[in-house]
Each structure stands twice: as structure tokens, then as C-alpha cells.
């Protein structure tokens, strides 16, 4: 086979090139001027976590999962015995999608059109990071990874397989845990996230 100019690239270099191409592409400009929030962590990595989209804090800092949801995630990872540098973390949408209400910005749930627009980039990102297992945090991530709607409440902690052979474990989104009104249920959901992350790390490694 003919060698391409990129055949000698390391995965980290390939990801850098993908991100540069992605940020320069027309389809990829955020509608609001929000900065692009790229994935972070080890490349390649056997374990990948996929979120939904950056929130206020992530948008301000340009890093995934650094706000309130990120604190929940960090605590769950710590309790599951996983170091954040043992994995790769990214989002389905690389920009914060919101509507304005007065001076506030309110999170909008991504549509299938939004997910589909980002999907080619996400698939290339996955191919480069090359995870054995991807934890889908919430239903938007699961939709992007599995091309179908699933009920996370029923499917969390189960191991599903993608067409490319990579495993997907659906888990609660940390923001869903934060929004749980009942304290006992909130604790239960948090413990389930810890359990699902621990299982995912065991299997990936
Ligand atoms: N929620 C997400 O899905 N991703 C983030 O990066 C932060 C909050």
C-alpha cells in the first residue's frame, strides 16, 4: 500500500492534527462564538469517557468537565480508584449550546441534528484514542456512540458493543445526579456511577 504523509504520526500528533482541522472547518464553527472545548487526557487510552457538551465553566475554561458536573465526576473517579490521567475525556458536542434569558445562559439539550453534525469528528477522535471501552455519560453520548436511543436508567452498567468492536457502558450523566431532588436517591445514583466507572476501568484495562 502507498504510504501517506501521516503514516509515521503518533496518536497524539494525529489527534492534534484532527483538532486543528476540526477547528478550521466551516461546519464546525460554533453558532454563538463559544470556544471549542477539545478532549483531554491520555492518547491512546484504553478507557474513554464521553459527555454531552461543555457547560458554563467548561465554556469559560476551554476544558471538559471542570464545573459542577466535573466535580461530581472527579469524586466518582476517585472513589472508583481511577486517576484522571488514566483516561481520555471528551464531549459529544464541542461547544456549549444555550439560549439567552436576560443575562443568563440556559443549557439546551442537543438535537439529533447537533449530534450528527459533530459525529464525524467524534468518530475520528475515537479511532485515534482507540479505547477498548467508552463510558457514555448520559443519553446524548449513548445516542452518538450507538446510533440509537436508549433509556439510561434501564441500560446503565450494561456492556454493549459497537459495530467497530469497542465496548460502550452507559452511565448516569453527573449533571443528572446533581439534579436529583431526593437526597437518598441522589446518593444511590452517585454510587451507581462509581460502580459503573469501576467496572468500566477493570474491563478496559
Ligand atoms: N457536562 C458535560 O456533558 N460535559 C462537560 O464537559 C461538562 C458538563
General form: globular
Bound molecules: uracil
User: Could you name the CATH class?
Assistant: Alpha Beta
Gap between N and C termini, in Å?
A: 32 Å
CATH fold annotation? Uracil-DNA Glycosylase, subunit E
The share of residues in helices is 40-55%
How many strand segments? 8
Q: By CATH's scheme, which homologous superfamily applies?
A: Uracil-DNA glycosylase-like domain
Structural class: alpha/beta
Number of helices: 8
Protein name: Type-4 uracil-DNA glycosylase
GO molecular function, one term: 4 iron, 4 sulfur cluster binding
Keywords: 4Fe-4S, DNA damage, DNA repair, Hydrolase, Iron, Iron-sulfur, Metal-binding, Nucleotidyltransferase, Transferase
Organism: Novimethylophilus kurashikiensis
Helix/strand layout:
Elements lengths: L10 H14 L15 E2 L5 E5 L4 H6 L6 H12 L8 E4 L6 E4 L2 E4 L4 H18 L3 E5 L1 H8 L5 H4 L4 E2 L5 E5 L2 H5 L4 H22 L1
Parallel strand pairs: 2-3, 2-6, 6-8
Antiparallel strand pairs: 1-3, 4-5, 7-8
Amino acid at each position: 500500500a502507498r504510504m501517506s504523509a501521516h503514516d509515521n504520526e503518533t496518536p497524539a500528533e494525529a489527534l492534534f492534527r484532527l483538532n486543528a482541522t476540526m477547528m478550521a472547518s466551516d461546519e464546525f464553527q460554533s453558532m454563538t462564538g463559544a470556544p471549542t472545548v477539545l478532549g483531554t487526557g491520555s492518547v491512546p487510552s484504553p478507557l474513554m469517557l464521553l459527555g454531552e457538551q461543555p457547560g458554563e465553566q467548561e465554556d469559560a475554561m476551554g476544558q471538559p468537565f471542570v464545573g459542577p458536573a466535573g466535580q461530581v465526576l472527579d469524586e466518582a473517579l476517585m472513589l472508583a480508584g481511577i486517576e484522571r490521567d488514566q483516561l481520555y475525556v471528551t464531549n459529544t458536542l464541542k461547544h456549549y449550546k444555550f439560549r439567552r434569558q436576560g443575562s443568563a445562559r440556559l443549557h439546551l439539550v442537543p438535537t439529533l441534528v447537533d449530534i450528527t453534525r459533530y459525529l464525524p469528528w467524534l468518530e475520528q477522535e475515537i479511532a485515534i484514542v482507540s479505547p477498548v471501552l467508552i463510558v457514555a455519560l448520559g443519553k446524548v453520548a449513548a445516542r452518538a456512540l450507538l446510533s440509537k436511543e436508549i433509556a439510561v436508567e434501564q441500560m446503565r452498567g450494561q456492556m454493549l458493543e459497537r459495530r467497530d468492536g469497542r465496548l460502550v457502558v452507559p452511565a448516569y450523566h453527573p449533571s443528572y445526579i446533581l439534579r436529583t431532588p431526593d437526597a437518598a436517591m441522589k446518593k444511590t445514583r452517585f454510587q451507581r456511577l462509581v460502580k459503573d466507572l469501576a467496572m468500566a476501568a477493570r474491563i478496559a484495562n
